[in-house]
Structure formats: C-alpha cells, structure tokens
Amino acid sequence: MTTPTTPGIRKAVIIGGNRIPFARTGGAYAHSSNQDMLTAALDGLVARFGLAGERIGEVAAGAVLKHSRDFNLTREAVLGSALAATTPAYDLQQACATGMEAVIGLSNKIKLGQIDSAIAGGVDSASDAPIAVSEGLRAILLDLNRAKTTGQKVKILARIRPKDLSPDAPSTGEPRTGLSMGEHQALTTAQWKISREAQDELALASHKNLAAAYDRNFFDDLLTPFRGLSRDSNLRADSSMEKLAKLKPAFGKSLGDDATMTAGNSTPLTDGASTVLLASEEWAAARELPVLAEVVDGEAGAVDFVHGKDGLLMAPAFAIPRMLARNGLTLADFDYFEIHEAFAGTVLSTLAAWEDEEFGRTRLGLDGAFGSIDRAKLNVNGSSLAAGHPFAATGGRIMATLAKMLHERGRVDGRPARGLISVCAAGGQGVVAILEAR
Amino acid sequence: MSAETLLTEMPSLSKLYVNAAATAAKGRLLRSEPVLALPSRAVEVRGVRADLAKVTEFSHLMGEAARDVLPSGYLHALVFPVAMSVMVQEDFPLPLLGMIHLRNQVEHLAPVMFTDELSVRAWARDLTGHRSGTQVQIVAEIHNADGTELLWRGASTYLAKGVFLPGLDKPTEAAIREDFIPPAPTAQWRLGVDTGRAYAAVSGDFNPIHLSVLSARALGLRRSIAHGMYAASRVLATVPQSKPEHFSWDIAFDSPVFLPATVSLEVVDSRTDDGVWLSSVFTAWNARAARRYFHGSVSAGGSILAGGGTRQEGKQV
C-alpha cells in the first residue's frame, strides 16, 4: 500500500516581470482591448525569459473593468501566446488589489508544491470599458427572448421607454455609499488632516523618482513598448510644486477651503497591463533563470467603511501591522516601502495612522503608535501618481519593480534586503506583502 | 522587371474599382483587340505605413489580440491596392471585375511592425489557360523602406471566367473531381450577411460582390460572398497559436462562401516530438451541403513560393 507524499512548504521566488507602459485613458491604447494589452505584456514576458512552448503551472490575471465576453480573459491570452496550450489559467478580481492577490495566491501554490511555475498578471482599460444596456432594457430584452408568440413580443417591446435606451457605464462609485473613491478619500484625507502641500510633495516625488528610474534605464528589463509608447504617458518629469499648486480641487469640494485633492495628487484613469513570473527555486535553477526576490508573506484585509468608521482605502493600515507581527518584523526592518498611490492622501493617511498613538492603542491594540517609516525608502522609483493606475495591473507593476530593486540592493546588515508592499482596493479592501532580496 | 511604374502614394481602391468598371464598359463598347501578354511593368509604392486604427480593428474582427506586429491578412490588405493597380493597367489582358480568387500563397520572412516604413511592389505573371477561362498570378512583395530586405511575399491566383485568349493552352483534361467526405469539424464559424461589409471596412476591399445581395447580383452572383482573405485571415488568427518569425501559408478556394453561411473547419497540427509546432493543414466546408469551401496549410519557415519562378506548383494538401 502506498501513502501519498505531500511535499512540505518550499519557497516561491520572483524571476522577473514584464509590463507595457501605462497610458492615460483615451491615449495610445484608446482602441486596445484588455485582451490586446494582457497579450502584449505576456508576449514580452515569454520572449524575455524564453518561455515559448513551456507549460507553466498556472497563469492567473484579471481585470476590474471587464466585458462579459472576456469571461476567460487570461486563458484566452495564454492561448494566443507562445506558452504551451496545456498551460491552465484563471481569472480573478479583487479590485485594485487583483495583481497582488494573483501573486500571493500563485506563490502559495508554489510553496505547497502544487505547481512549479506561475505567471501572475492584471490588465485594465478605462478607455475600452464595457457599457451595458440599462437595467430596464436588459429586463425587457430577456423577457423578449423568452416570449413565444408575436403578440407577446409586441407587448414586451411596447414597454420600452426612452430612459431605457441610455446605456449604463461603469463608475468608480461605491455601491453602498454612492460616493466615488475620490470623495471617500477626501473624507479620510480631511480626517487625518493631510495638507495640500504634503500631497503635492508626494506627487512631485513620484514623478521625479519615476523619471529618474527611466533615465537610468531601470525599466529596460521590466517593460515592453506597445503601440509606440515606451514610457508611461502620465509621467511629467518637469512637474513642479508651482504647477501642482495651481490645480483646483477635484474631490471633496464640499469641504470648501479644506478641499486638498486635485488631479495632480490623485491618479488618473489609465490603461495598461503587467505580468510577473513566479517559480520554485528548483524550476528557476533548472532553466538558469535569474531569481530576484522571494515572496515571503501576504495578507488581504478589509475595513468597515460603509458608515464611515474607517476610510475606504485604509485596510492596509490594519493588514500590515498584523502581517508584520506574524513575521516578527517592525517597520524598521524594511529597506523599501511600496505604498500604492491611489491618491497622495491615501499614502499619507496610512502613514499618519501608523504614527498616531491613539490609533495604535485603540484600533490596532498596540501599546502605542505602530511606527513611522524613513520617507527616503518610500516609492523610490515612483508609483501610481506618476505611472498611472490601470487597476488590476498595478500589483504586478509594483511586485516586479520591488523585486528588481531588492535584487540590486542585495544584502543589508547581513540580511537580505526587505521590501513591504501595500495596495488598497475598492470595497474597503487591501492586499499587502513582504518580499526579500535574492 | 524591365520597367516600373512608381506611384507617389497608395492608390485608392474605390477609384480603382470605378476605373475597372469604366474600362470594362469601354471594352464592351469598342470591342478592341484582346491583349495577349501581361504588361512587363511592376507597380511600386514607397513610404507605405500601416494604419494603426485599422490594424486594431482588423485583428479584433478576426478574434485575435491586436499586436504591434502586423497580421498576415492585414499585410495582404495593405498591398492589395498595388496589386489592383497592376490589373487595371490599360494593357492588362483580363477584366478586373468579376475575377475569381483561386489561391493565395504567402511567405513571411520577418515580422513587420506597425511603425515600419515599407516599400510595396506588385506585378503579374503566369498568364495561363484554365479549363473555364484564363488565370493569372499577381505577386506582391513588401520590402523595408530602402528596399534591402524582403519581409513578405504573396502570390494571388485569379481566374477570369469565360475569358479565353487565343494562343493560350487550355488544360485538356478536366480536374479530377474527388468526392469530398467531410471530416469531424474542429471548429465552426457562423457568418452573418454583414461579414463581407465588416471585412471591407477593415481591409478597404469594397468589391461589390462582397457587400450586399443587390450589389453581388449586379455582378452575376446569386448572393454576396465572403472575401477569401477574410477566411484566410480568420484561420491565421488561430493557426498557429503563436506565429514564428518566418512562416508560410497557402490557401486554395474551392467554392464561394455565400452569405450567410455556417462554415465547418478541421485543423490538423503537426509537431515535433518535443511539441514544437511545424505545420497545420486546414479544410473548411459547408456544414449543410458537404461542399468544400477552401483548404490550405501553414508551415514554419519554408518557402512555398519559388522566388520569381514562372510556374506555380504549390503544395497540395
């Protein structure tokens, strides 16, 4: 009699990544579909790491704004790529944390020995967004489909009213509050008393850091040009505090003079796609592929934002302390912090909460404040304010970027360089992760 | 080629069709002496670029992801006005309108990017007799901007039905009609009546036989038919799964796809023992009538076109 042998926990590593430059909505990718962009990112990854004909353990990716015809978006992208057709794939969606969740879920499968290799990804197009027929027209069309006689059909068609003909476009509004993400963040930004100047400074640093990273060719092996674009089109290398100061508030206008959030310190709607190649150490070694970083841990969190107890985008403020405690780490043990810049206010509110004694005691159950970070370690190669934020693609962008930064850094004080990622998401959610250099 | 006509810009297909119609009418009125030889000139256009919006629409119509590399079918559409210009020359011996597309043989030598500036050159060859008329081959080549590298070469064989030119030998024996026994289909296409209009919109080929029942009837067909290149492009969207840099394909059209249509397809791949794709053969037929619509093959590398050769002996599949 044989007993099944389950392999123990092993390590999951990041080999590299590939994305296409992100484009402001209506720009270079205005007519590109999610399928086009995800395929382009995947083609580039396959070419970079010589994966043609390779059967990958699993590919997981997703899009936040997705056409119903794209129900198998990721599998279709695999079938259109040079990967072996025997590579399985699935779609997932956790709003702006989609790419993060893809990396963590696939890493866990690698750690458990269920698969040896994986590709995580994400894509979003705000330009080619799905538009549905109105709810009224949808009900009528479905009834029409079920009708048997001409008389029934005529009766059903007669129910159509002019208002039924206006299409239903997706919005960034929260279904339970009716507030857009920006309006939610405006409340949080005001709650934590984040100044306009602090937000503009963060936005400016994002543009300067991203531009500098491009200038030293940091993204050369992380990016494949697409549709004539070789840099993120939202990047403004010549931005300045003066220019940012001139912008009028875009969110929280009801706050009057306290309205601080502008188009400059908020991410624009963006199109783009990203992918990350994950594997076991053995798989990478057998193919002589580089290993950039190890996926140490990850966690998804959520907050009760509906009646305003916590800000919509504050879940990572809770998830990170829990994850670090589990790993016996503090903020001082990290060399890089990648806090997704949905809005400058999101990053600064999170940092303010961690530095707040009362928040630490009453909300995190600590003895005092959770801690503060060295701002020189924050988003050092720029983040979403400069690069843009194609919702599901942001996680993959950050994972690959941080993995490369950690690999370049190598060791710090005798230990591998360590990085922390925080990505907030709609629905009061967030996904966070720890990476270590290899 | 002894001489060349260099066009300063890509000719307009709609004007070419109008010219062809005018030439046809003039020919009927004047009953001029038939021309018996092909013009020896090639037609060339330089500085050609893809229209990115059209490339995207083209790929989406075929159900494939739009890439920066141009699909083979789009390249055919890109060179088509130049090929048409060859056929509307005054001394071209066959009438353009009503010609039947028999076959296409294409070799891709290198990927063509949407940003590439290209030179396109086309000429006619192989004017030969056919049991039901006269056939001719139009060869089109795409080179890089300075003409130093051949990127793509296609040969389209057309039949002018009922046109018999003196001095051209007709094949004496009729082609053997083998009974077609449909295999088990691996795919099915449901083509609506708008298929021709949709392909015309992305390819620019507004030949009336594809557009509507009425315009097709005006040219003697009972209904409109799908473009042969729509069929070829749609097969190529999925065969092979991922395109090698150098590949060739060949399609022969057996019967017109009258619209609307349900097309059954069988695709058979051959691979190495390691699973590397070598080639695919495909056959399509009318699901209801068991009549073959078209068949062909796609192969990695390979030159199914003998450069400049006079005889076309494409691979039979």
What does this structure look like?
The complex is a heterodimer of chains A (438) and B (317). By secondary structure, chain A is α+β, with helices and mostly antiparallel strands. Chain A has a domain at 181-217 and 296-437: 3-Layer(aba) Sandwich (Peroxisomal Thiolase, Chain A, domain 1), CATH 3.40.47.10. In chain A, 34% of the residues lie in helices and 17% in strands. Chain A is built from 14 helices and 14 strands. In chain A, the strands form three sheets. In chain A, strands 1, 2, 3, 4, 5, 8, 9, 10, 13 and 14 form a ten-stranded mixed beta sheet that branches. Chain A has a two-stranded antiparallel sheet with strand order 6-7. In chain A, β13 (418-425) and β14 form a beta hairpin. Chain A starts with 11 loop residues before the first strand and ends with a strand. With 317 residues, chain B is an alpha+beta fold. Chain B contains six helices and eleven strands. Chain B has an eleven-stranded mixed beta sheet with strand order 1-2-4-5-6-3-8-11-10-9-7, with helices on one face. The longest helix of chain B is centred in the N-terminal third of the chain and has 18 residues, at 13-30. Chain B starts with a strand and ends in a 17-residue tail after the last strand. The interface between A and B is medium-sized, with 22 and 18 residues.
List the helices and strands and how they pair.
The complex is a heterodimer of chains A (438) and B (317).
Chain A: E1 12-19, E2 23-24, H1 34-48, E3 58-61, H2 73-79, E4 89-91, H3 98-111, E5 117-124, H4 135-146, H5 150-157, H6 181-191, H7 196-215, H8 241-245, E6 249-251, E7 261-262, E8 270-280, H9 281-286, E9 293-302, H10 315-327, E10 336-339, H11 344-355, H12 357-363, H13 384-387, H14 394-409, E11 411-412, E12 415-416, E13 418-425, E14 429-437
Parallel strand pairs in A: 3-4, 3-5, 10-13
Antiparallel strand pairs in A: 1-8, 1-9, 2-8, 5-8, 6-7, 9-14, 11-12, 13-14
Chain B: E1 3-7, H1 13-30, E2 41-48, H2 52-61, H3 72-87, E3 100-108, E4 118-130, E5 133-144, E6 150-161, E7 187-191, H4 195-203, H5 213-218, H6 228-238, E8 247-253, E9 261-271, E10 277-286, E11 292-300
Parallel strand pairs in B: 1-2
Antiparallel strand pairs in B: 2-4, 3-6, 3-8, 4-5, 5-6, 7-9, 8-11, 9-10, 10-11
Helix pairs in contact in B: 2-4, 3-6
